[in-house]
Design goal:
The protein has 133 residues and is of the alpha+beta class. Helix content is 48%, strand content 15%. It folds into 2 domains: 73 residues, no CATH class; 36 residues.
Length: 133
């Protein structure tokens, strides 16, 4: 009985360990990065990574192979990840904030435009006609 319980506990622990994979980080000239994940194929991991680098838009750019656990934990601002070869990947907080502010501004404009359009329909009596009154 103890062995069965031990086996269940061991299986539970092993299935809940997050698996970190090796990814290739390509450093672009503007400090932004590209992450290349390996997909099982007939090529080895290294050969697949090399093929992606040599035949794609990343040809000639520096890269590192790192453990995916070294990437920022949240993917929320992944468009603002940046780095340089041999250095930690960071989030450009300034660009992320500008983007967030821009999204909020656009949302406010959209709400205001809907309110104006609705008010215009009310003023013209068209809203009552659409409602069937």
């Amino acid at each position: 009985m103890k062995r069965i319980i031990f086996c269940f506990i061991l299986i539970f622990i092993l299935t809940n360990i997050s698996y970190a994979e090796t990814v290739r980080v390509v450093y672009k000239t503007d400090k932004s990065i590209a992450i290349i994940h390996y997909v099982e194929s007939s090529l080895s991991r290294e050969a697949a990574f090399d093929k992606a680098i040599k035949h794609g838009e990343y040809k000639g750019l520096p890269y590192d192979d790192i453990d995916s656990s070294e990437l920022p934990q949240s993917r929320e601002n992944r468009n603002y990840w940046e780095g340089e070869k041999g250095k930690k990947i960071t989030i450009n907080q300034e660009q992320a904030q500008v983007s967030k502010d821009e999204k909020e501004r656009k949302a406010k404009i959209e709400v205001e435009m809907k309110r104006i359009a609705e008010q215009s329909l009310i003023d013209s009596g068209e809203l009552d006609n659409r409602r069937g009154k």
